[in-house]
C-alpha cells in the first residue's frame, strides 16, 4: 500500500493539492454565477451591457438582494446550479475515478447527485442552511462502508471563509449520529473532540477526500462573501455489506404534483419556440 492510502486509512481523509486544473473549477463557478446573472438581468438589477464590469462585491450584493426580495427565485437558481453540465462533468472526471480506485473502491458508483453550495448567513433563514454542525455523511448516504466524499472548493477557502473542519480518525469510531437535522446525521462532540477539529484550508483546484464516516462540520463564514464549494459522494458496488444490504438507497427524487405556473404554457407561447 502506498503512503496516500495508508494516510487515508489511518486518518480518514486526504488533501489533494492542485488536483484539478484551475480552469475546470473556474468553469463550474462561472456557470453557477451565470444562472443567477440571468435573473439579475431579468429583474433589472443590471443591464446586460454592464456585465463585463461587474465585480465580485457587486455580484454578492445582488445575490443578497435577491434573497431578500425574491426567495423563490433565489431558491430556484440554487436548484438549477445543482444541474450544471460542468458540475456533473467534474464529478465524473477520470482523475476522480482513478483516485477512488486507488483508495480501494473497486467499482465506484455515484451515491448522491453532486451538490454545489454557496454558503453565507445572508443567504439562509436557518443556521443549518449555511453552517452545518458536526455530522457524518454515511447516515444520509447509507451506502457501502468504504463510501467517500470529495469536497472541492470553487474559490480559495480559508478559515475566515468557513473552511471545512474535520475530526481526524473519527471514521474508525463507527456511526455516531444521534439525530437527523435537515437530512444530516448529526453528532454530539465531546469537549476534547471539539478541540481536535482541524480546519482544512484549500485553494481552488485542491480537493479533500474523506471517509463517509469522518465527522466534519462547516467553519463559520465571517466574511462578506459566499463560500462556493461542491461535494461529490461515491459508493463501491463491490463492497460486500453493500451487496448484502441489497444496495440500500435512501434518497427520493420525484416531481411535485401541482402546476407551478398556472395556465402555462399557451399555444402561443409554444409557437414562438417552434416557429
Ligand atoms: O460544506 C459544508 O460546510 C457542509 C457540508 C457538508 O459537510 C456535507 O455536505 O456533508
UniProtKB/TrEMBL annotation:
<dbReference type="Pfam" id="PF05721">
    <property type="entry name" value="PhyH"/>
</dbReference>
<dbReference type="GO" id="GO:0051213">
    <property type="term" value="F:dioxygenase activity"/>
</dbReference>
<keyword id="KW-0560">Oxidoreductase</keyword>
<dbReference type="InterPro" id="IPR008775">
    <property type="entry name" value="Phytyl_CoA_dOase-like"/>
</dbReference>
<protein>
    <submittedName>
        <fullName>Phytanoyl-CoA dioxygenase family protein</fullName>
    </submittedName>
</protein>
<keyword id="KW-0223">Dioxygenase</keyword>
Amino acid at each position: 500500500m502506498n503512503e496516500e492510502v495508508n494516510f487515508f486509512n489511518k486518518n480518514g481523509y486526504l488533501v489533494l493539492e492542485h488536483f484539478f486544473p484551475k480552469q475546470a473549477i473556474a468553469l463550474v463557478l462561472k456557470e453557477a454565477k451565470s444562472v443567477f446573472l440571468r435573473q439579475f438581468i431579468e429583474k433589472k438589477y443590471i443591464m446586460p451591457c454592464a456585465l463585463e464590469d461587474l465585480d465580485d462585491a457587486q455580484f454578492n450584493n445582488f445575490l443578497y438582494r435577491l434573497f431578500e426580495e425574491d426567495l423563490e427565485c433565489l431558491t430556484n437558481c440554487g436548484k438549477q446550479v445543482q444541474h450544471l453540465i460542468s458540475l456533473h462533468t467534474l464529478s465524473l472526471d477520470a482523475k476522480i475515478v482513478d483516485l477512488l480506485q486507488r483508495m480501494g473502491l473497486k467499482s465506484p458508483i455515484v451515491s448522491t447527485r453532486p451538490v454545489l453550495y454557496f454558503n453565507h448567513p445572508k443567504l439562509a433563514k436557518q443556521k443549518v442552511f449555511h453552517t452545518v454542525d458536526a455530522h457524518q455523511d454515511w447516515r444520509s448516504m447509507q451506502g457501502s462502508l468504504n463510501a467517500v466524499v470529495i469536497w472541492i472548493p470553487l474559490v480559495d477557502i480559508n478559515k475566515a471563509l468557513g473552511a471545512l473542519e474535520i475530526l481526524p480518525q473519527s471514521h474508525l469510531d463507527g456511526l455516531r449520529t444521534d439525530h437527523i437535522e435537515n437530512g444530516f446525521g448529526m453528532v454530539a462532540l465531546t469537549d476534547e473532540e471539539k478541540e481536535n477539529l482541524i480546519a482544512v484550508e484549500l485553494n481552488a483546484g485542491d480537493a479533500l477526500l474523506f471517509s463517509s464516516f469522518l465527522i466534519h462540520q462547516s467553519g463559520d463564514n465571517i466574511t462578506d462573501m459566499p463560500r462556493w464549494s461542491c461535494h461529490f459522494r461515491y459508493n463501491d458496488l463491490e463492497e460486500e455489506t453493500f451487496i448484502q444490504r441489497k444496495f440500500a438507497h435512501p434518497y427520493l427524487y420525484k416531481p411535485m404534483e401541482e402546476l407551478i405556473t398556472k395556465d402555462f404554457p399557451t399555444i402561443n407561447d409554444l409557437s414562438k419556440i417552434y416557429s
